[in-house]
Write a sequence for this structure.
């Protein structure tokens, strides 16, 4: 547990720093949007591409990938059942499903690398390679299917998926690894530097987006679905890992990835595709705060 806390505390500290910088207006709001865009389009894809290209896939625990995908579909199904609850309009159902299947990759990468070094970084990247496309497909379909009036023409989820820079980086990294192509040293070093920046700026941006007052504003719906997401996805992930024989470090990585809060990009997608954007914003904020309690607690329970 002490090793996990040692890995988690720097993450919390950097997220807190981002929150302070945002609240104090030391960095303007528009600048945060530019930082998020830079991380999403350049820095994070560079980290994914390099890590996947250098990952030893002959030893990759594919059971880990399968368990996480199954967990996403399972909790997405739980969110779909929300349509039968009272006072749950279609857009809210779409936002709940999206919250249930997305995860904060930056937090997962940071904790995984700090806790298990290069092995942890490689395993979280393998998780990202399968969870990100799955989350995008499920989220887009859920939001479109439950939207009252989506803005503009309905997008093709597969076209949107393959325009996603993170997905493009996943495909490129997997292709390089599959072809056993070694990155030239200059390119490898450049991607490494960009990847190091991705972790720091991603955590600062996550902190800038934290709204502590959301805990006071959150009603029963936001709190209950936040807990379903923070407890349900890791429960399904660990359960499927056990069924598939995944143990050791990959099992812990599965828990870490699943126990992170939902992705901060959920709000933008909900707004664009006719979901309940206000509910998505509240879910992001509440889950980010509560995960600081639930994530270490679940890790302790798993490693006892």
């Amino acid at each position: 547990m002490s090793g996990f806390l040692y890995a988690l505390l720097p993450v919390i500290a950097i997220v807190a720093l981002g929150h302070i910088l945002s609240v104090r207006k030391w960095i303007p709001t528009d600048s945060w949007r530019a930082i998020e865009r830079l991380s999403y389009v350049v820095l994070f894809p560079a980290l994914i591409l390099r890590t996947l290209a250098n990952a030893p896939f002959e030893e990759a625990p594919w059971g880990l990938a399968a368990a996480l995908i199954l967990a996403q579909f399972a909790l997405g199904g739980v969110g779909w059942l929300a349509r039968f609850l009272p006072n749950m309009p279609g857009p809210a159902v779409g936002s709940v499903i999206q919250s249930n299947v997305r995860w904060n990759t930056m937090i997962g990468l940071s904790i995984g690398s700090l806790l298990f070094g290069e092995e942890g970084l490689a395993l979280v990247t393998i998780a990202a390679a399968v969870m990100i496309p799955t989350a995008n497909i499920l989220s887009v379909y859920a939001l479109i299917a439950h939207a009252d009036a989506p803005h503009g023409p309905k997008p093709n989820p597969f076209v949107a998926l393959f325009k996603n820079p993170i997905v493009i980086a996943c495909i490129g990294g997997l292709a390089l690894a599959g072809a056993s192509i070694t990155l030239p040293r200059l390119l490898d070093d450049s991607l490494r530097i960009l990847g190091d920046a991705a972790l720091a700026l991603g955590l600062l941006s996550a902190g800038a987006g934290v709204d502590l007052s959301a805990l006071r504003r959150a009603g029963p719906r936001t709190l209950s679905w936040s807990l379903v997401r923070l407890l349900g996805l890791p429960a399904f992930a660990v359960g499927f890992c056990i069924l598939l024989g995944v143990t050791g470090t990959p099992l812990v990585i599965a828990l870490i990835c699943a126990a992170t809060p939902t992705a901060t990009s959920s709000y933008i997608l909900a707004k664009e595709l006719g979901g309940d954007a206000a509910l998505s914003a509240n879910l992001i904020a509440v889950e980010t705060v509560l995960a600081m309690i639930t994530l270490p607690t679940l890790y302790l329970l798993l490693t006892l």
